[in-house]
């Protein structure tokens, strides 16, 4: 059967993750053929560096694909089937502030959790809605597959403000962890596992993991994780060929302490910020946070490699890589384009998938994905511990969205106060007032 050729726009063309997605798209042309690839960004200079390298990569590996990079929404969003979005409103300069401002008050600052995530959410909602609106104006039948963070807040905002839009919010953390689980189990690929999982984004638990024959893999995994977290055997032995930065190594190790809270399940790594916020604050350097690490490593590496490719005019020895992050979004696009019915974890309206949880909460659960989009799979009732945590966290996320919609200072103060990461309402207010000052070019005015 001949597969229909697809037209893609990557929104946030200047993202450090764009080259990985391009490479993954090129590696999958037999399963997901492409006729047109476009980049869209509101920072022409940043995007051009990635685009110049991409132009060379495409010329060498798939010259039949039409490629264009633009800052013009009409040109970008006209005649597309998929928008693959990963924008960062305020870029790393604002991520650094999200992380450092809470630290002034001894509170951990994080990209997607606690006060940092709340600040980022208040910037992202408008940017993501703008892109969604461009898509619906210029290509009303297209789907938007959105990685832009903080995915939990963005997903709640898009489901409330654009309830009929074809947007699916996604996260690569579960597939990143599943990749590690597969290594612990000695499997060739994470795709050999069938999982049950529930939670909010960056706030969830695996309840069941089996191989394709139905054999239960949980006992073996739990035995490993309670001792080593998600550090892999080869990392323990020092024989791993996957490069990992110290902060991620610490996170994967810390997961064991997170797992102890519920010995029957396996947790998402991000729960460490909610269970051990003081440990995280103590472990962080307020002068050099993850944003600094990313700017010094991933951003430098990706942009210097793109610039090198553009200078030597060949990508034959390119050192850019495609990982689970890229394979996940390409698999999702393929599932929709060709009705593959792949089982994938996605962020969707609950509507009963978690039986005893808010029907309007955006939950992360396994879904069967076909040309109509995701069909969530029911995960049953959840225990009181997880339900209590999720009720509190979903209220934080919904209050942020309401604060953005209504321009409400009070609701944002409530959101910060309700976050498990913030110790009390007074500290919440101090952090909020500093965040308002730092975000005056991005947030709606709060009254
Ligand atoms: N959901 C996930 O699991 C997951 C995983 C990895 C990265 N991410 C997210 O992907 C995004 C990109 O991450 P990164 O580290 O590569 O960031 P980055 O800063 O390198 O790239 C983001 C790009 O977005 C552009 N941008 C910002 N606002 C825009 C707007 N309004 N319209 C168009 N373009 C805009 C910037 O100019 C920049 O080029 C972030 O939101 C990050 O949190 C999500
Ligand atoms: O601090 P960063 O920018 O490196 O990462 C923050 C993101 O972390 C998760 O994505 C990881 C992923 O889990 C890992 O397997 C690998 O692919 O790197 C990704 C990005 O570094 C998380 O899911 C994202 O939401 C965060 O933005
Ligand atoms: Mn994520």
UniProtKB/TrEMBL annotation:
Please list the residue ranges annotated as the Glycosyl hydrolase family 4 C-terminal domain.
Answer: 197-422
Q: Which cofactor does it need?
A: NAD(+)
Q: How is the cofactor bound?
A: Binds 1 NAD(+) per subunit.
Residues annotated as binding substrate = 95, 149, 290
Q: Transmembrane region positions?
A: 7-26
Which keywords annotate this record? Cobalt, Glycosidase, Hydrolase, Iron, Manganese, Membrane, Metal-binding, NAD, Nickel, Transmembrane, Transmembrane helix
| List of catalytic residues | 172, 270
Query: Where along this sequence does the record place binding of Mn(2+)?
Result: 171, 202
Q: In the record, what terms sit under GO molecular function? A: hydrolase activity, hydrolyzing O-glycosyl compounds; metal ion binding; oxidoreductase activity, acting on the CH-OH group of donors, NAD or NADP as acceptor
Name the Gene Ontology biological process terms.
Answer: carbohydrate metabolic process
Of which family is this protein a member? Belongs to the glycosyl hydrolase 4 family.
State what protein this is by name: 6-phospho-alpha-glucosidase
